[in-house]
Amino acid sequence: MSAPSSVRSALAPQVQELGAALTHSRYVCFGGFQLDTERELLYKDGSKMRLPGKVFQTLVALVEKPGEVVTREALRERLWPEGTFVNYDANVNNTVNKLRLVLGDSPDQPSFIETIPRLGYCFVGNVQRRNELLRPMAAETPTAVVSSTPQAITASRVLASALEPTRPIAAKPKTPGLWADWRMRGLGALVLLCGMLIGMGIVLLTYRV
Question: What are the start-end ranges of the H helices in the chain?
Fold first, then answer.
């Protein structure tokens, strides 16, 4: 059983490319996702997520055959060994729904997993196989545009002066105030008065003798 002819014809080239590199490529890329088939990890825009075992196996089963129908019976045989007693239909539905939740996909408007009624599921995303994990590109730092208008030049000068380190202002030498001047004059007058008194005392003592 196969997918509708329109889906099959649209995805035929990538099916051939995938089949040629299937056994040699470690990473499966689709949308913003990268699947590490060896470590069972899924990367979304560079963020790492670990999938439950059955959800991972379901995704691998689908991306191995993009554009082709993976039957519910094939998923059952892959996910549950022979002799396991479970409700296969309910468990397959539950596992696929978990996978859609991880991928942010919708069954009504699928970007990755399309339901083929009464048959199974078909992976309709664009699939690429790679040997290396693609790293998300770092966001480029926007380059500032400098305007040559007079207003811009004045603003840039003001900004530059504001960013310059502040130089300490030298302290001005203190000058004696008015009160200090009067103190000096008073001290001089006092010394002069003392000298005069001493001189007069000497004169009086001389005449008494």
Answer: 5-21, 53-63, 72-79, 88-103, 150-163, 178-208
